[in-house]
Amino acid sequence: MVFQEVLMASTRGHGDMHDLTQEVARIVAASKIKIGTAHIFNVGSTGAVGMIGFEPGLERDLPELLDRLIPPSRNYGHEQAWHDGNGHSHLQATLQGPSLTVPVSDGNLALGTWQQMHPNRHESYLPVSLLTAQPQSFRWR
To answer: Where would a tag sit more exposed on the chain, N or C end, judged by fewer CB atoms within 10 A?
Structure first.
């Protein structure tokens, strides 16, 4: 059985995050799937989805870390080609990754206490990420 629902997750721009865990848990509950996986995928090349202990310190630390590793002010090859100033957004999103897969056990997301899902938009002018949750159940014979 496959269940799919599209979740629109808005961010305010570069480095903004919010907790998606309850929204994805609602989708898993609506699916009525008891055992399987939830796959969460961010559509777009300047956004990512990740897992973090969602608290104010880490909510500040992760974007700051990504900006230190891949600063917005660099003259990246992408910017030389497209002149749009968002080469760092593509690179930061690539570093973090576009998807997560979370086990579903007894109809619930199998997450630890300090594991929350979040979208992370690295692009200042594209504030909406499209996320797809697709839990699957497997029947063993």
So the answer is: C
- Domain ranges in the chain are 5-133
Mapped onto helix, strand or coil, the DSSP state of residue 120 is strand
Phi, psi of 24 (to 5 degrees): -70, -40
Q: How far is residue 6's CA from residue 39's CA, in Å, rounded to a whole number?
A: 12
Distance CA 11, CA 9 (A): 7
SS3 percent helix, strand, coil of the chain, rounded to 5, is: 30, 30, 40
Topology, domain 5-133: Jelly Rolls (2.60.120)
Burial 73-91 (b: 16+ CB within 10 A, else e): eeebebeeeeeeebbbbbb
* CA pair distance 105, 85, nearest whole angstrom: 43
3-state secondary structure of 116: strand
For the chain, the maximum distance between any two Cα atoms, rounded to a whole number of angstroms, is 56
Q: List 88's β-bridge partners, or say none.
A: none
pTM attached to this predicted model: 0.81
- Are 47 and 129 in contact, with CB atoms under 8 Å apart? yes
Q: How many C-beta neighbours within 10 Å does residue 47 have? A: 25
